[in-house]
Amino acid sequence: MAECITSLQNKYIKLAAALKQKKYREETGLFAVEGVRLVEEAARSHYRVDTCLYVPKALEQKRVQDILNRFKNSGTRVLAVSNEAYHKVTDTQEPQGIMALVEKFQPDISDLLASEKLPLLLVLDHLQDPGNVGSAIRSADAAGCTGVILSRGCADLYAGKTVRSTMGSLFHLPVLENVDLPAFLAVCKNNRINIMITTLSDARVYFHVDFTRPVAIVFGNEGNGVTASLLPEADERLYIPLKGKAESLNVTAAASVILYEAVRQRQYMG
Amino acid sequence: MAECITSLQNKYIKLAAALKQKKYREETGLFAVEGVRLVEEAARSHYRVDTCLYVPKALEQKRVQDILNRFKNSGTRVLAVSNEAYHKVTDTQEPQGIMALVEKFQPDISDLLASEKLPLLLVLDHLQDPGNVGSAIRSADAAGCTGVILSRGCADLYAGKTVRSTMGSLFHLPVLENVDLPAFLAVCKNNRINIMITTLSDARVYFHVDFTRPVAIVFGNEGNGVTASLLPEADERLYIPLKGKAESLNVTAAASVILYEAVRQRQYMG
Fold first, then answer.
1. Distances (CA, A) of A82 to A3, A7, A160, B48
2. pLDDT per residue as tens digits for the range A17-32
3. What is the second-level CATH architecture of the domain B4-103?
4. Under CATH, to which class is B109-267 assigned?
């Protein structure tokens, strides 16, 4: 068996622990991914995995052995670490004992538009909750979106909770972070992508709207909705009718409802 | 100003703190609701509020004054407590300094069926995550459901995180907890309510299913789906098609998508 890192001062242990903080994720261009399934997804994706840390006990799982072999063959640094050292780097309450340090990857907007699929873009404007951002990316993946755009000021895509909430979907479709939305919406206009903004004022019920066109659909902050200065850019304003006494839907729920209306309508296209 | 409770041994402080634990919620039949908006919702609802605790600083808000006046008029016990005492009872990281101890209220199944509205029932089978249970109740409220049914083994309806995630919807529509699902589905059958179960096997795409009939829609556990022994009870089995590479949708997202397909279809009914 490989030697096992026990020192909490080891540079990879210090690096992995530091990645819990956004500052160090930005400085290094790396983020951490934990658990068998998510590390598998990272390994299968086009993301470059810099380093993989694991505790020897995790080797009892065949899936972990397979991942490690794959990493060894592809030149990823693979390090066995003690339980104590792993405890320092983990961000979860019930760690599975395997973590990948992954290089951030940001597609260009032009990559996003080069897809041959009919554009279905999910745009998140200043969402605050990492769980909401992650779950919305998961729903976008499920609905076959061609990309997700996170505005400047959204919860960090690479925070542990966001990554976990994507359930791996981060590795499945292009996700752009830290995007200047006015500039992005201008690109949409130039590329004949319809800009749809969710808002309660002067809006149509979402299921009366035609989603069989190329569309980018904008959802706003949990408390305040979409930034007011973006509203004039909308080709369509839409809302979800509330039938009971709830004041609003959770933003992930709202995005899922509207994206699946697009799925439904597109099902019946020529 | 009223006298302010400072002792951490005060019986109401001890009671409120104990309600963080399910055991004491069951023993007393009470649960705690925190924050201005949720306490307002409780005050306006048909739930009986036993006691309201607040810190004097919260009185700076007109809304808090209004709530307290309402409680005083309706015979609810209203107690000012010190910041330190409040700190002991709160379950949130940024407490707003007002908490209501509310009596649990469980409608009968017959109350649920007595509604004049076309039945649209959300049934949650062994959901584990309190946030999912709470958000699903919020979506059910938004979609105008006539009730929500939580099976035995669901995350506790009255846990702090569940109550917070409902955003007040708990007080808007009948929510039954701890329900024996086989017995409940038998009642549905007797009342000509169509039982729809979400499952991947031998199922139809949800938007091909007719939701303009009286329906109860069952969603399963986050990892394992709906309990297998319930499947034979289904009048319809349905699923949400996955267009990308995601393995599944978050259960709240899934419930929102299907409940809103029911809203859409019912919009066009005679």
1. 10, 9, 21, 54
2. 999 999 999 999 999 9
3. 2-Layer Sandwich (3.30)
4. alpha beta
